[in-house]
Amino acid sequence: MRINVNDKEYTVEVDGNPSLLEVLREQLDLTGTKYGCGEAACGACKVLVNGVPTPSCITPATAVQGKSIVTIEGLEKEGSLHPVQQVLLEEDVFQCSYCAPGMILTAVALTEKKKPLSRQEIVEGMNGNICRCCTYPQIIDALSKIS
Amino acid sequence: MMEKERIKKESKEKQTRKLPGEGLSRRNFFKYMGAGIATYFVWSDYLGATLISGQEEGHPVADQLSSWIHLSASGEVTVFTGKVEVGQNIRTSLTQVVAEELFLPVSSITLIMGDTQLTPYDRGTYGSLTTPQMAPILRKAAANLREILLDEARQEWKLGTVSLQVEQGTVRHPQNGKRLAYADLANGKKLLQQMDDNVPTIDPSGWRVAGTSVPKVNGREFITGKHRYVSDMVLPDMRYGKVLRPPVQGARLKALNTEKAAAMPGVQLVREGDFVGVTAKDTRTAAMALASIEADWERPPQVSGDRLFEHLLQTADNGKAVSSQVSNAFDSAAHQVQQDFEVQYIAHVPLEPRAGLARWSSDGLLEVWTGTQRPFGVQEELERTFQLSKDKVRVYMPDTGSGYGGKHTGEAGIEAARLSKATGQPVKVNWTREEEFKWAYFRPAGLIKVRGAADKSGILSWEFHNYNSGGAGIDLPYAAAHKHQEYHRADSPLRQGSYRALASTANIFAIESTINDLAGKVGADPLQFRLNNLNDKRLIAVIEAAAEAFGWNSRRPDTQHGFGMACGAVKGGFVATFAEISVHPQSRELKIIKAVTAFECGAIINPRHLESQVSGCVLQGLGGALFESVAFNEGDISNAFLSSYRVPRFKDVPEMKVILVDRKDLPSSGAGEAPIVCIAPAIRNAIDDAVGIRINRLPMLPAGIVPEA
């Protein structure tokens, strides 16, 4: 099966019906997308599927045929970071950072819909993403700076 | 050979050559490190002991080294420490203290951390010890290296004992303004010096790099998804492994049928006694093979959650007799509070579950990559499991997806090594979330019994018993006429271990709740009652700072609002948290409106990262305070998923304020634990203030509804 990830076409194997997460990590070596819970409860595995933040752990790879997927590896364009990455880096938000890729992709979709975001909009839009280091206040402050 | 080539070759070799186990002779050291200048430090110096033995050429054996810094002939500074990075951002703070003393930019310093072959032995990254122990060592080691460089420059220029200026990696000539780069001074030399403990270091009041909010040194790697956590790592010919789990801890295998798994193409089965595992080309195939295995287990009888506290009390040590002075003072006091506190097991839930990757080489070397707070502990576990000598086991610890005290062990690494040994190929074992919940360990549950008595003059009697959760934080910080404090060991139904701040969270919850209630009985303001009975000026200072920022003396905005406070001193950190809550008059729903925390841990090394540690502790603590609890029935963990075990999320974040008290005159201590201890009692006391309900259990309100009186 062919899938499009970060504007590149790949041929992948879908025997055994693997999740999109497994295909990204194990077949394409795109390990920026993380496993956190396996049941779409933590947001660590979120990628953009046609621009929509989607938990890749419960999404069968076969379901994304013909769709465009963006992972954390695809956000940087010609060496410049996406504004969401930029602000989170400048504000020095993360601790262990394992949640960062899922957080960033969720925030990318949010900021594409509306800028600037109110605190309430950030909290609502990001609530599906867990940061166990609990850097939530730092993430909220940083994202509210995007205009 | 050209000098440059030689250095390149040597630096390549240092990746593969083992540490000289015979002892750290000068010759061995530079054979291993490459030419240059280095300074090292031994643990026994720091610990004030005189146990150095087995020396060669006056240098200690490798195991006694605590750290070293090496300046290469090309000017690279490399710091070697056995401490590890699990998100507390010590890679950055330790780099800062070295940069400070060497007058170098942070970017020119590399830290090699937690690699058992390259770094000196370290017991582990826990107990808030990195900042108070390792940071001063590295500071002194870097200062020592700077002094060596100054001496070398004086010799080069044939100067006497003049004082020289250091700037951006160069030494400046006092008269002619010429400069010598560190690289020039190190070139062609093989200088190894033990650190002089009396070397002058830069006073924190003059810090320019330490003490500032230097961003996470490798932050870009994380934000772009490039950093490889162990769970992301791949080796040539690597296979994905899964291990068959019993239904409960302690179950024994009675019968096993692996026919279906064995018939699956590309699946390898491993069985060694009760250890059963599979490897395959990908996780999916391995998981399907595992699911096809039929196993029958014999389950040992186990205590269920509904009998937990009864069981802890029944199995506990009797302990020491309580003196009659303590009981008489209690009995005769004007005001008494006697109450029990129940604290449930909670899970660490590191967002990266345990992961291990193992490879056996043809020469018998076992390499294991695993996310652990104790790489040297895992090395010892591997030595024992496979009957190997230390030099045949190398453990690597890449910066890991958090621990919070929950990754002191090396289960996934050992499992990967077993599967790899049996199959002859590198194997990676990534635990699922369910495995992390069921097969790691928990923060201990505990039962606490308190009897306290007071009058207007102060605390007259204090009797405190902790069953099972631990003795950390058990000491009453207040003056009391008579005291009895005791931790009683008990039989824990579930596997338990370290957790951020250990038992301090439980003990300080009970202490600060009881102090609140005594203040109420005496008719004193809870803040004033505390101040009247405290002597510790550092604790008083954080209480006062938080009280002012919170507005303790302001009026409650509404009758359903409550104010509560708590304070504590843990491992050199001083913390006070003030909370404002409201209880909805009809639904009785609890809302945390505001949490203000003041924290002091000596001289601050990185204010931004310290603030993250403090707010992170408070918010993580909110989970254990309000809703986190492990549900178990005869050994089954029934909420082993993130959909059933609730952790704090964005929506749980109240208005937060963190006040950092910087004491440049005091040594820096750790901050990863202390700030977690006050949020629970502050909320508990605020609920009491609002509606007069005292909730003496953790978690307090899993459903978020405050009961009627």
- Quickly name the level 1 CATH class of the largest domain in chain A: Alpha Beta
Fraction of residues in H or I helices of chain B: 25-40%
**CATH class division of the largest domain in chain B:** Alpha Beta
Query: How does CATH name the architecture of the largest domain in chain A?
Result: Roll
Overall structural class of chain B, as computed from helix and strand content, comes to: alpha/beta
Gyration radius of chain A, rounded = 15 Å
The percent of residues in helical segments of chain A reads 25-40%
Residue-averaged pLDDT of chain B, rounded? 92
- Measured between the Cα atoms of the first and last residue of chain B, the distance is 85 Å
Oligomer: heterodimer
- Unreliable stretches of chain B (pLDDT < 50, length at least 5) are 1-23, 45-63
Give the neighbour order of strands across the main sheet of chain B.
11-12-9-18-15-16-17
**Count of helical regions of chain B:** 19
* Elements of chain A, N to C (H/E): EEHEEEHHHH
CATH architecture of the largest domain in chain B: 2-Layer Sandwich
InterPro entries (chain B): Ald_Oxase/Xan_DH_a/b, AldOxase/xan_DH_MoCoBD1, AldOxase/xan_DH_MoCoBD2, AldOxase/xan_DH_Mopterin-bd_sf, N-heterocyclic_Hydroxylase, OxRdtase_Mopterin-bd_su_IorB
Organism (chain B): Cyclobacterium lianum
GO molecular function, one term (chain B): oxidoreductase activity
Protein name (chain B): Isoquinoline 1-oxidoreductase
Task: Please tag this protein with its features.
heterodimer, A: 147 residues, alpha+beta, Ubiquitin-like (UB roll), DNA polymerase, domain 1, 2 domains, 5 strands, B: 709 residues, alpha/beta, Aldehyde Oxidoreductase, domain 4, 7-stranded mixed β-sheet, 5-stranded mixed β-sheet, 19 helices, 30% helix, disordered N terminus, AldOxase/xan_DH_MoCoBD2 (chain B), oxidoreductase activity (chain B), AldOxase/xan_DH_Mopterin-bd_sf (chain B), Isoquinoline 1-oxidoreductase (chain B), AldOxase/xan_DH_MoCoBD1 (chain B)
